[in-house]
Design goal:
alpha/beta, 7-stranded mixed sheet, 6-stranded mixed sheet, 19% strand, elongated
């Protein structure tokens, strides 16, 4: 997760304007390792005791929030931070007509089903969560039967669709942004090394599609498991034909892959290195081989401001994914204020102009996935430096 960000918190007035400023037109709304943490399965280990349901706020529009509050390990910590962020959004959005019905799913599909049933029985008009990919279908089945939309936090695109929208950091957005930027600065031939796992499979599909869409070419593409040496040699032999090299993995793994390529004879300073939001990691910034690499990620200024306000309110650091819960609550509060009876209808949620949140622009696609307006960051020893800002609006 991201380390502490030292920045003065935004004054209350500005904070409220930011929340209200989610509405930037009719009916528009106005990184770090772990930003794409999948949360596909709960951590091993004993869970805590189930937390009692809680209602926060006094508004007329009821919103279910399903989180694994009693799950073990990092998942439970993330859920607690996300609940705090959700309550913070309510506090900063002046007098929202929202009541949050917070349910603990314990990190299990059964818990998600029970929590969703309770929220719907209590009148929830939309469900926020769950966090785990394995729990989303349990919630979706019940919500679809009632014609209720779901905004879940999983990064597994396979659980999206049919009224289930993902407000998460999807690797597809990172790949599209970094490939488009690379083509824009004259890169035409690409090589790539990605892990042989679910994340790597998603990256592979998005990367090949993005390069093809821009009439570029992929000269080498290799996947690796525990042993990187053989695929590194294959890629190293092809780098003379490439303008850019994508290394898509988390911080520790990217450093290990760069080391394997160097050992295979590659001079990584002679090619433009490319990465995803997972590069926003101290290990990457400290690696001599990765200096000058470019990666796509949300503009970090939004999270720094959010983290400062969170520290002031709760006395600790938010997890990086806490902004998802904040943005989800701010979104439904804004829609409840402006969109009347159609506030959570599919055509409202999939407005092509999108919405603006803590981490910049985002919009939901009709298939339930999302697109984000991302910045392009450059690796330096002092951290990530923006070389291209996030867009102010989405193209057609």
């Amino acid at each position: 997760m991201a380390g502490p960000h030292h920045r003065k918190s935004t004054p209350t007035g500005a904070t409220r304007r930011t929340a209200l400023g989610l509405i930037i037109g009719a009916p528009l709304l106005s990184a770090c390792s772990g930003i794409q943490q999948s949360f596909s399965t709960p951590d091993a280990g004993p869970s805590g005791p189930p937390q009692q349901p809680q209602a926060v706020g006094t508004g007329q529009v009821k919103v279910g929030l399903i989180l694994p509050l009693s799950a073990s390990g990092n998942a439970g910590v993330a859920a607690q931070s996300m609940r705090n962020a959700a309550e913070m959004a309510l506090a900063e959005f002046q007098n929202p007509n929202i009541q949050l019905l917070i349910k603990d799913d314990g990190g299990s599909p059964q818990g998600a089903s029970q929590g969703t049933q309770q929220a719907l029985a209590e009148g929830a008009e939309i469900i926020l969560g769950p966090l785990f990919a394995g729990s989303v279908p349990a919630t979706a089945q019940l919500a679809r039967a009632r014609g209720t939309s779901v905004i879940a936090f999983s990064t597994d695109s396979s659980v999206a669709g049919h009224g289930v929208y993902l407000l998460s950091f999807l690797p597809e957005s990172d790949i599209n942004r970094i490939v488009d930027y690379s083509i824009g600065i004259g890169k035409r031939s690409f090589a790539a090394m990605v892990p042989d796992n679910a994340y790597g499979n998603v990256v592979e599909a998005a990367f090949k599609q993005a390069v093809g869409r821009k009439n570029g070419r992929v000269v080498a593409f290799e996947k690796y498991g525990a042993d990187r040496a053989a695929p590194a040699r294959t890629v190293a032999q092809a780098l003379g034909q490439a303008d850019a090299l994508l290394l898509a993995d988390d911080g520790d793994s990217v450093v290990a892959t760069a080391d394997a390529l160097t050992a295979a004879g590659s001079n990584l300073h002679n090619i433009q290195l490319l990465g995803t939001g997972l590069w926003d990691n101290p290990r990457v910034f400290a690696s001599p081989a990765l200096q000058g690499g470019l990666y796509a990620a949300p503009d970090p200024s939004g999270f720094r401001s959010f983290a400062g306000r969170y520290r002031t309110k709760f006395g600790g650091e938010p997890v990086r994914t806490a902004t998802l819960a904040y943005d989800a609550v701010a979104l439904v509060a804004a829609l409840a204020r402006t969109q009347g009876g159609q506030r959570f209808a599919p055509e409202t949620l999939t407005n092509p102009s999108g919405f603006a949140g803590i981490d910049g622009l985002f919009r939901f696609r009709s298939d339930g996935t999302n697109e984000r307006g991302l910045a392009v960051m450059k690796v330096t020893s002092g951290g990530g430096t923006a070389v291209a800002g996030s867009p102010k609006s989405f193209g057609a």
